[in-house]
Amino acid sequence: MIRVLASSYVLLALTMLFWGGNAVAGKLAAGHVSPMLLTLIRWTLATLFMAPFAMKHLRADWPAIRPRMMTLFLLGACGFTLFNASLYAALNFTTAINVTIEQSSMPLVVFVLNFLIFRSGVTGFQVAGFLLTFTGVLLTATHGDPARLFTLSLNIGDALMLVGVFIYGAYTVALKVKPQLSWQSMIFCLSLAAFLAAIPLAIGEFALGHTIWPDAQGATAALYTAIFPALIAQSLYIRGVEAIGPNRANLFVNFVPIFGAILAVLILGEALYAYHVAALAFVIGGILLAERGEKI
């Protein structure tokens, strides 16, 4: 049992490392491949890589897939395409450290949307956790100066990332209506939907004259995003959830901003400021606090 738990923890830690690296890869891609083209390349490769492993499961799951194709398309378009397009576009204007910290507010966005839409029960700890996490995201988005909110001088990259966080939060809540499929079929269907949804975005980028064709660095970053955050991390996360359950596995998401910040400093040479450290403490502390307590 201890060995199973230890291996599950390693799998989940690797998952969060790969997800934290997604922001670093996106930052490395900035200026070397345009964000919408990067999104299209990512989901093209992910779909092609996943296809051989999914075919058998797709045939078995087809009766459940066919009547829910539009649902699956919308989930993939929002959760995979629009979120990653927002993330990669944001990294052209802000730092990878900022993006990973802002990204970590997703669990609290999910909490708020669940409460507003489904009237899910609210706990005092969840309210306190939301306020702490919101404080951390606010510190990050305003670069340690909340007074910027009153002058409307937020960095466009941070604003784009917050839009992406809301989109992914809505996607997470909408997963309640997804059909019951094998994880291989689910990932392939969502990846295929993401690929289809990314095509018009890439065409629009090209029509506006903003396309940057990938050089070696851009292609390497795109390959990383397709293999590690999109496919390997998703597969490892599912195995981790199966081993220790979703509630315990979800706590590991708190490591994404930590790994992301460390990688951004080591690989990109980004500066880690005091407000980043304070924001990380607020965000992680807020999420952990929201996981505790009883309903009031």
Automatic annotation (TrEMBL):
User: Does the record's keyword annotation contain RNA-binding?
Assistant: no
Q: Which GO terms describe its cellular component?
A: plasma membrane
Q: What is this protein called?
A: EamA domain-containing protein
Q: Which residues form the EamA domain?
A: 8-141, 156-289
The alphabetical list of record keywords is:
Cell membrane, Membrane, Transmembrane, Transmembrane helix
Q: Which Pfam family is an annotated match for this chain, by its short name? A: EamA
InterPro entries, per the entry: AA-Vitamin_Transporters, EamA_dom, EmrE-like
**Mostly located where?**
membrane
* Topological category with respect to the lipid bilayer: Multi-pass membrane protein
* Segments traversing the membrane: 33-51, 72-91, 125-144, 156-175, 187-213, 219-237, 249-267, 273-290
Location relative to the cell: Cell membrane
Q: Does the keyword Membrane apply?
A: yes
